[in-house]
Amino acid sequence: MRVVASVALLLSMVCAPVLAEGNITQGQSKAASCVACHGANGKAVNPIYPNLAGQNEAYLELAMHAYKKGERSAGQAGVMQAFTSSLSDEDISDLAAYYASLTPLK
Ligand code: HEC
Q1: Which residues does the UniProt record annotate as the domain Cytochrome c (predicted)?
Q2: Which DSSP state fits 51?
């Protein structure tokens, strides 16, 4: 039982890093360079890009950190590495809050 609790605790630390609360309005203005691929309303302009509208905020934040750190590097990830390399932690939080706030697509 104690082993299970320890493993659960360890997993929660690994899987749930402390994520900052983002500012939606700031995120919207910072998203100007994202529109070209992810669309004005978070719906991708081309099916080779992911829709972001209504996606989970924490997931979006983790994904952007992973691109920035090079942890996501396969396939098309190089595109996002370029776009996240100059983003601060605050930028990433704001962008995640903004895209999560948009109405999910059907
Ligand atoms: C030139 C096109 C392009 C631009 C501009 C762009 N992205 Fe992306 N984005 C992509 C592609 C392609 C992927 C999928 C990469 C992969 O395969 O991992 C992606 C993936 C993502 C993901 C992960 C989605 C998921 O479901 O895992 C997030 C979050 C994201 N982009 C946010 C942004 C933000 C925020 C900006 C603006 C700062 C931005 N992108 C600008 C092309 C772009």
Answers
A1: 22-103
A2: -
Q: Is the CB of 88 under 6 A from ligand 1?
A: no
Of 69, 43, 57, which is closest to residue 93 (Cα–Cα)? 57
Q: What is the pLDDT of residues 72-91, one digit of tens each?
A: 999 999 999 999 999 999 99
Q: Can you count the helices (H) and strands (E) in the chain?
A: 6, 0
Please give the domain boundaries of the chain with CATH numbers for all domains: 24-101 (1.10.760.10)
Q: Is the pTM of this model over 0.90?
A: no
Q: How many CB atoms lie within 10 A of CB 14?
A: 8
